[in-house]
C-alpha cells in the first residue's frame, strides 16, 4: 500500500541523515586530533548517498541509502609548531583536513532534511489514521 | 448490477488511490533531496485519475523470448503516469529536487487526500441514514 511505503521512504531518509549527522559530529570533534587510532592525523569523513527502492516496496518507492563513507582527499592542514613533539623536521605539525565551516553547513543541511522527513512521516500517519476511520460514525 | 454505492464511491476510491501513490512519490523526492543525480518525479493528478477511470491502466502484454527481456508488466497501474519534474534551478550534483515545490505539493496532496476521505465518509453516512430510514 502506497501510504505505508511513505514510512519506509521517510524512515530510510531519517537513517541516512542521522548517519550524516554522526559523521559531521566526528569530524567536528576531531578537528584538532593530531593522532588518530592509526597513528596518522584524523582524516575528515563524508557519507555517500544513493537512491534505492525501499525494501518491500515497489520501484517507485525510492528511499535513501548510505552506500559508503569516504575519507576526504583534501590536503592536511600544516601548522607551524616547532616545539610540538609531533612536528616534522621543518617544524610543521600535520593537522586533520577537517573544514569546520563545511561541516557546520553539512550539519544544518542534515538537520533540516531530517526535520522535513519527520514532517512527512507525521502527515502520513495522520492520513493513515483518517483512512482507517472511514465509515466509523 | 452495480449498485448506487459502488458507482458513487468509484471515483473517490480512484482519487484516494492516486493521491496515496502521489504521496509516495513526493515522499521519495523529499527523502532524496540530498542524493546526487536523483531526478524528482511526480504525476499529473488530473490525467492520472482520468486514465484510471477510463481503464487505460492495464498492463501491456509483451512476449518475452529471452531471459533478459523485460516483462512489461507494471507493478502499479499508476506507474505509466509518472513524469520527471521540470528543472527549476540546476544543481551541480544533478539533483533536481526543489524542496519548496515538493513541500507545497506534499501539503496540497495531503489536503486533497483528506478531502477524499471526507467525501467517502459523507457518502457512507448518507447511505446509512437512507438505510435506517431517518
Structural class of chain A: alpha+beta
Oligomer: heterodimer
Give the topology string of chain A: H per helix, E per strand: HEEEEH
Reading the helices and strands of chain B in chain order gives HEHEH
Terminus-to-terminus distance of chain A:
24 Å
**What's the rounded overall pLDDT mean of chain A?**
90
Q: Can you tag this structure with a few keywords?
A:
heterodimer; A: 137 residues; alpha+beta; two-stranded antiparallel sheet; 2 helices; 4 strands; 45% helix; B: 134 residues; flat
Task: Give a description of the structure.
The complex is a heterodimer of chains A (about 140) and B (about 130). Chain A contains 2 helices and 4 strands. In chain A, about 25% of the residues are buried. In chain A, the strands form 2 sheets. Chain A has a two-stranded antiparallel ribbon with strand order 1-2. Chain A has a two-stranded antiparallel ribbon with strand order 3-4. Chain A has about 140 residues and is of the alpha+beta class. Helices cover about 45% and strands about 20% of the residues of chain A. The model of chain A has no long low-confidence stretch (mean pLDDT about 90). Chain A is elongated, with a radius of gyration of 22 Å. Chain B contains 3 helices and 2 strands; from the N terminus they run αβαβα. In chain B, strands 1-2 form a two-stranded antiparallel sheet. In chain B, helix 1 runs antiparallel to helix 3. Classes of the chains: A alpha+beta (about 140), B mainly alpha (about 130). The interface between A and B is large, with 37 and 36 residues.
Amino acid at each position: 500500500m502506497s501510504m505505508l511505503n511513505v514510512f519506509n521512504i521517510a524512515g530510510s531518509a531519517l537513517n541516512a541523515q542521522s548517519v550524516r549527522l554522526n559523521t559531521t559530529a566526528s569530524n567536528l570533534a576531531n578537528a584538532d586530533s593530531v593522532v588518530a587510532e592509526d597513528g596518522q592525523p584524523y582524516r575528515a569523513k563524508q557519507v555517500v548517498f544513493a537512491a534505492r527502492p525501499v525494501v518491500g516496496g515497489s520501484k517507485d518507492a525510492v528511499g535513501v541509502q548510505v552506500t559508503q563513507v569516504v575519507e576526504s582527499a583534501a590536503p592536511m592542514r600544516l601548522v607551524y609548531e616547532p616545539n610540538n613533539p609531533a612536528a616534522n623536521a621543518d617544524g610543521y605539525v600535520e593537522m586533520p583536513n577537517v573544514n569546520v565551516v563545511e561541516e557546520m553547513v553539512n550539519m544544518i543541511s542534515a538537520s533540516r532534511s531530517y526535520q522535513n522527513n519527520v514532517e512527512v512521516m507525521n502527515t502520513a500517519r495522520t492520513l493513515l489514521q483518517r483512512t482507517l476511520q472511514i465509515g466509523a460514525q | 448490477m452495480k449498485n448506487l454505492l459502488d458507482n458513487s464511491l468509484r471515483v473517490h476510491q480512484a482519487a484516494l488511490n492516486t493521491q496515496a501513490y502521489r504521496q509516495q512519490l513526493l515522499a521519495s523526492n523529499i527523502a532524496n533531496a540530498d542524493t546526487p543525480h536523483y531526478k524528482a518525479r511526480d504525476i499529473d493528478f488530473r490525467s492520472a485519475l482520468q486514465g484510471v477511470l477510463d481503464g487505460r491502466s492495464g498492463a501491456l502484454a509483451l512476449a518475452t523470448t529471452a531471459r533478459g527481456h523485460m516483462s512489461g508488466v507494471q507493478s502499479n497501474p499508476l506507474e505509466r503516469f509518472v513524469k520527471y519534474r521540470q528543472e527549476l534551478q540546476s544543481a551541480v550534483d544533478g539533483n533536481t529536487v526543489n524542496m519548496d515545490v515538493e513541500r507545497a505539493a506534499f501539503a496540497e496532496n495531503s489536503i486533497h487526500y483528506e478531502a477524499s476521505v471526507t467525501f467517502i465518509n459523507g457518502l457512507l453516512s448518507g447511505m446509512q441514514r437512507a438505510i435506517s430510514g431517518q
